[in-house]
Amino acid sequence: MKDRYLYENSLVLKNLLDIRDPELLNQAEADYVTFRLKEIVANPLAGEYDYAHLLSMHQYIGKRWIRMMRR
Predict the structure, then answer these.
(1) Are 37 and 43 in contact (CB under 8 A)?
(2) d(CA 61, CA 33)
């Protein structure tokens, strides 16, 4: 069965970066997350370090990456 979310003959999700190699895509994600974590260290998000704050950090780190993955 063909999956419309994957590149043809691949297990890689279609993405706006058009990265089709799974190793390269994993590395791009790791680089992106590292960059965003460094931003948080340099400019911490305001909050009480509770569950809601953790969710806001998670969203900050992943929101743009998720948008890049959608096609």
Answers:
(1) no
(2) 6
Distance in angstroms (rounded) separating the CA atoms of residues 56 and 58: 5
pLDDT level of residue 67 (50, 70, 90 thresholds): confident
Residue pair 33/65 in contact (Cβ under 8 Å)? The answer is yes
What's the token pair of residue 64?
């743009």
With left for phi above 0 and alpha for psi between -120 and 50, is residue 9 left, alpha or beta? left
Alpha-carbon distance of 14 to 7, in angstroms, equals: 6
Report the alpha-carbon distance of residue 45 to residue 36 in Å, rounded. Answer: 12
State which amino acid sits at residue 54.
Answer: L
pLDDT of residue 1: 72
- Side chain identity, residue 9: N
Q: Which letter does DSSP use for residue 14 in this model?
A: P
